[in-house]
Amino acid sequence: MFMSSQLALKNMGLILRFLGSLLVLDSILHCMVQAKVQYYDFVLKETNFTRLCSTKSMLTVNDSFPGPTIRVNKGDTVYVNVHNKGKYGVTIHWHGVKQPRNPWSDGPENVTQCPIPPNTSFTQEIIFSDEEGTLWWHAHSDWSRATVHGAIVILPAPWTTYPFPKPYGEQTLVLGEWFKGDVMAIIDEALATGGDPNTSDAFTINGQPGDLYDCSNGSTYRLLVNYGKTYLLRIINAVMNEEQFFGIANHKLTVVGMDGAYTKPIVTNYIMITPGQTMDVLVTANQSPSLYYIVSTPFADTTAPFDNTTTTAILQYQGKYTAPSSIPFPTLPSYNDKAAADNYTKLLRSLANKSHPVKVPVNITQRIFMTVSVNQLYCPNASCSGPDGNRLAASLNNISFQTPTIDVLQAYYGHLSKVFSNDFPKQPPYFFNFTGDVGNNTLYPSLGTKVLTVNYNDAVEIVYQGTNVGAAENHPMHLHGYSFYVVGLGSGNFNNITDPKSYNLVDPPLVNTIGVPKNGWATIRFIANNPGVWFMHCHLERHASWGMDTVLVVKNGSTRETSIRPPPKYMPPCSKT
Ligand SMILES: *[C@@H]1O[C@H](CO)[C@@H](O)[C@H](O)[C@H]1NC(C)=O
Ligand SMILES: *[C@@H]1O[C@H](CO)[C@@H](O)[C@H](O)[C@H]1NC(C)=O
Ligand SMILES: *[C@@H]1O[C@H](CO)[C@@H](O)[C@H](O)[C@H]1NC(C)=O
Ligand SMILES: *[C@@H]1O[C@H](CO)[C@@H](O)[C@H](O)[C@H]1NC(C)=O
Ligand SMILES: *[C@@H]1O[C@H](CO)[C@@H](O)[C@H](O)[C@H]1NC(C)=O
Ligand SMILES: *[C@@H]1O[C@H](CO)[C@@H](O)[C@H](O)[C@H]1NC(C)=O
Ligand SMILES: *[C@@H]1O[C@H](CO)[C@@H](O)[C@H](O)[C@H]1NC(C)=O
Ligand SMILES: *[C@@H]1O[C@H](CO)[C@@H](O)[C@H](O)[C@H]1NC(C)=O
Ligand SMILES: *[C@@H]1O[C@H](CO)[C@@H](O)[C@H](O)[C@H]1NC(C)=O
Ligand SMILES: *[C@@H]1O[C@H](CO)[C@@H](O)[C@H](O)[C@H]1NC(C)=O
Ligand SMILES: *[C@@H]1O[C@H](CO)[C@@H](O)[C@H](O)[C@H]1NC(C)=O
Ligand SMILES: *[C@@H]1O[C@H](CO)[C@@H](O)[C@H](O)[C@H]1NC(C)=O
Ligand SMILES: [Cu+2]
Fold this sequence. Notes:
Elements: H1 2-19, H2 25-32, E1 37-51, E2 54-61, E3 70-73, E4 77-84, E5 92-95, E6 120-127, E7 133-139, E8 149-155, E9 169-178, H3 183-193, E10 202-205, E11 222-225, E12 230-237, E13 243-248, E14 253-258, E15 261-268, E16 271-273, E17 278-284, E18 291-299, E19 311-317, H4 338-347, E20 366-377, E21 391-396, E22 399-401, H5 408-413, E23 446-448, E24 451-454, E25 459-466, E26 475-479, E27 484-491, E28 510-511, E29 513-516, E30 520-527, E31 532-538, H6 541-546, E32 549-554
Parallel strand pairs: 1-4, 3-8, 9-12, 11-19, 20-25, 22-23, 24-32
Antiparallel strand pairs: 1-2, 4-6, 5-7, 7-8, 9-10, 12-17, 13-16, 13-18, 14-15, 14-17, 18-19, 20-21, 25-30, 26-29, 26-31, 27-28, 27-30, 31-32
């Protein structure tokens, strides 16, 4: 493939030289490498699946779990016509795709669109720009993303290649979560009682729980490899509520990319990957030909209930050998090993070389300090199932996000009042020892649909401060419409004098989701050069459901090219309530 395209390039060179006197070379070359347009149809419908000895009907795209992969080259545009043949309204989000000027196709329910009603369809235009590597798509309404998700593979642009030797093969590994019950019923029940949602019954790798669960060992996912070859594994964490440690027995992992951008290679025995993140990993099949376990276990540094089970797949060498009496199993950090998780996260760096330059904003024009908390709301007569008969909630800067019934984008673009307010604060209501003995400080948040507005081209810095209010844990914060540089991470309260001195402004990782350490902080920076309405939220689904969300509105610049595009002819309607 690579050889032949190199040859093609050489021949092209000759032809172009020949034509050179007649035509402008530049414009031919431009046409030749012009981005492709692709069309996909996604059919959402209920299908029966059997796992863990029982069968249930669940919503998937084209009867597959995980769903179909979208494969593009960098810079392509894809139209996906989403046909909803399910029972309820759904939306689809293209996670990590920046969608320049085009929030209309981004997807979060009642933020950029209302749900696609059953028996209707909605065509979304997915505009790729500088992303290269692995991203994914998932439903963005209620908890439907548990079963409605799939990979997005972004290959290098034509006639360019990876910043590492071309792997012999590549494979996507989607980490998922299996609930025996109906996921929509589970979140509905939790929101009705105010308590914790039921935990899942298994994790999965490419839809299969693996050898450690009942009725599962016959269908464990197997990754076939040839001795001596190197493979690119595109790992996607599509789990709902738990971060994951991942490793392969006896094999080193070399991390080369994350969230659709390249990283400096990290050689490691394990990775920690949060829901929402993707990691591209090279693995060389250089051990004795045999079978080796590929394992994913939860990282959950919390007192909240979580699924404490382990999913496995098998790395299987091709060829003749005697199968081992027991398959080697990797040693992964224990479920609450915060140090192991933080150590790994701190290793991440942008590739930052000549062909992959880094431009970290330094002259900050918008400074935001944002507390990230799990909270409670009073229930009449202490009648809820949360602590002290309260209802569990969550907040950013002490505001628990209330989802509107008309999408924020439509309201912003059409100047509708009373859908949202513009007063999301740039600081919490007051400062206290956020990560110590917090007492009742900000235990009870206020409610609102408040958005954070910045100007076009603002240099934005956000310090996320994890708090010990409610239940402290690692929070994977995700921003739509952007990738951002993570310039610093630390434990305890952020110190605005000393901590900025340790910022990495040289090669910080460029990501769309960052795990804010439990009772710690993370600082991100980006240039607000994508006008639109962009959701920001914790990617632990129960926290997002409880209100750990807000919306970033980036105003238009002064020209058409720096302004939000006009809406498509059709958007799914919001129901009159
Ligand atoms: C999904 O199914 C529809 C109908 O069978 C088909 O036309 C479409 O190509 C499929 N899409 C993908 C991505 O496989
Ligand atoms: C799906 O599974 C349910 C429960 O096992 C069963 O009643 C139903 O007939 C199945 N539907 C199809 C289309 O197979
Ligand atoms: C969708 O259309 C099918 C077939 O016409 C019909 O049976 C079903 O009730 C419709 N669903 C909804 C929610 O309207
Ligand atoms: C949640 O778990 C409880 C206890 O196992 C069970 O009774 C309940 O039916 C489950 N809820 C749902 C929606 O599956
Ligand atoms: C799965 O496990 C069962 C029970 O331990 C065992 O009898 C069976 O051989 C296993 N099947 C496979 C494919 O490993
Ligand atoms: C989780 O599982 C591990 C290994 O089986 C066990 O050591 C640990 O106690 C469990 N933790 C919780 C909170 O259930
Ligand atoms: C984390 O990194 C520190 C400093 O390099 C090291 O001392 C510690 O052993 C590491 N902890 C784990 C669990 O890897
Ligand atoms: C940042 O601002 C300072 C002072 O206005 C200016 O001298 C410097 O060139 C700016 N740096 C960048 C990278 O824009
Ligand atoms: C979104 O808005 C619709 C009405 O347009 C409403 O039915 C739905 O419940 C809202 N979704 C959420 C999560 O609040
Ligand atoms: C905050 O609380 C922690 C834990 O109790 C304590 O170690 C720390 O000294 C406190 N910090 C301040 C500034 O009081
Ligand atoms: C927190 O507030 C509740 C209700 O106001 C009160 O009963 C409780 O004593 C307070 N706890 C602390 C530690 O202040
Ligand atoms: C620095 O942090 C303190 C609280 O620790 C706060 O009062 C002060 O306003 C902050 N300064 C800036 C410039 O953000
Ligand atoms: Cu969270």
